User: Fold these one by one.
Assistant:
Number 1:
Amino acid sequence: MKRKEVVYRSGMVLLAALFVMVVARGTCGKPKPCQAPMLLEPANGAEMMEKRPTFKWQGIDGVKEYEIEVADNEMFDPVVVRQTVMGTSYTPTTDMLDGTYYWHVRGKRGKNWGLWQEMAWMFEIYTPPPPTPEVDLERIHFDFDKSNIRKGDAGILEDNAEQLMDAADMDFEPEVMIEGHCDPVGTSEYNMALGQRRADAAKAFLVKMGVPEGQLMTISYGEEKLVTQNMDEYEMNRRAEFKVKD
């Protein structure tokens, strides 16, 4: 029994040794997979207007060939860009659309591709909104105790209307407060009503020129906001001002 036991144990040792040799022979000569390259640009969380961003990563010793993938989802299924690159940078040949993207890179050593990053880097491409057009509306003035639009001031209102409609063509339709003002002659109650008539007259003219009525509001300040208290300059107080709301 002891001899059989010895033979049995010797056989098991031999089988274990053979297994180790087979495994070693199967792995011998295979290059170690490349570690994931260190990503550089675009930085994780970057926001950019560039439609063809340049992707850069740190090279791995002994590795010349890399593969980059860019996708609009974290699973990279499907990918927007998949490109084999000789070097450590890549610039797309076509514009990328606005949106959120993820990217990663792997290297190739011998015939074997290495590892991707455990967590891909994210970046965003966006198109900035067009600049807000400048709207500089000029005030108009009125004759004493009048609210009708004077001939000379009609041209000013036409220019104001044109500015507002040009802005609307650029998707900018700001609310405009039309303020009616008076000189200090008369009672405050009368001037408050007169100021309202002046504001309403200016609004009606702009609406007639094509400015949407809903874009225009009116208010009267009567004699509360005088420009001057010099009687020789009272005409400066008899006015309508146009305040563009942000």
Number 2:
Amino acid sequence: MVPQRALQQVLAFFKEQFPDASADLNASSNLQKTILLDSLATMEVIMFIEEAFGVSLERADLDHFETPQTIADLIERKQTLR
């Protein structure tokens, strides 16, 4: 998958799931400040990534949940390893 496409899907997911918090969301937005990912929201993101991109995430992968871009980069790396 083209990294830009993954990024666009990740951004669309956040904008759909968190409309009130994502008005100014972009590729470099800090998700901890913009979306305020709590444990439930983090699980929703994990389920989205695993289902939409066909990758499995591990606990260490959560370190990459900083920005939409770092998530898209993680997806790209995971897809390359399949």
Number 3:
Amino acid sequence: MSGASLLLLALLPSACATSARPDLDAVLEDVREVVGAPGAILAVRFPDGSVECYASGVADLTTGLPAAVGDAYHLGSVSKTLTAAVVFRLAEEGHLDLEDPLSRFLPEFPRSEEITLRHLLQQTSGLKDFYLYLYFRPDRAEMIEAVTRNWTKDQLIGLAARFGHHFDPGQDWDYSSTNYFLLGVVIERATEMTLAAAYSHYIFDPLGMTSTWLVLHEPPRADMPFTGYLGEVKGWPHSEMFGELGASTVLEHSSVEWGAGGVVSTAADSLRFLDGLFGGELLKASSFERMLETVPAKALGAGGAEYGIPRDVASAYAHGLMRTQRPAYEMLGHGGIFAGHTAGLWYLPASGIQLAVYFNRGFVPQRLLIDRVVEALGPTPSEPSR
């Protein structure tokens, strides 16, 4: 770890320990170099409540500014877990029920009487992902304009309504950010708050998360110096515009991410959320048990065959949470990719360890880092389950 990173680590609030483990520092540095990310952050919360944070590389290749553990970054689809948590809070308060049809809040949406909130939460609605439509426009300039346009909520609802279904609601599973965009609309209509205000009211304020916000919808609450980078991505025809590694800034002013991927946070704040969720501060035990109910799902995340990463043994999707069985361990949480940023927030049930992961390069196989961290830490006593 650089001297600047160590200094910033020492200046952080007590959420992060000022002493670091050389083995984890070395693991982060090595994995960052292997995957070709300019910068990376790793934060580990142990069962005793202690948190250690690590930073490697640079936040920006042009300026050479070192990555720092207190910097905020795009969570991408990790935001879905926060959106789901708010929905469960609203269910506890009687504002909605998971079996409510979408028509209760969006009667104008096609087939809304057949789609339940649970379908949206578990990715079983069958709705096609309109986000892919935006990112896969035939013309590059058209794609950039579509992704970064200042869409109104009604325009996005109309866009989501145009694309129909892959399958009938409840009959299969398919990952679609459309589901979580619609849940954001449900939250706003159920609470008469903005989504940003609902996040603050139900999550950020109760947990003391002072460095987390919904990007483009409220002022920044922490330094956010990371430039995202992309190389060519298999299957995405426009990724050649970034060459071997180019800044993805042109795509980052995106109002469409919102409840599906628009939250920005720091590693310490992210772990505070995960601990509050799994530790019983946010939800009643009965609600959290329901949140963990899963359906079979396809494996998610960036591919890792070129890095020799073993495949997942099994994958399932709960309500805004992925349950992934690796060859040597299980992890619960969510990963996220937003343009040139990769993030993850994970709980390892066998050890009680929580991990926040970030790279300022898109489509990084974060399982490589998590596998290495688990190997480096070895057996760790678990805290009692709830």
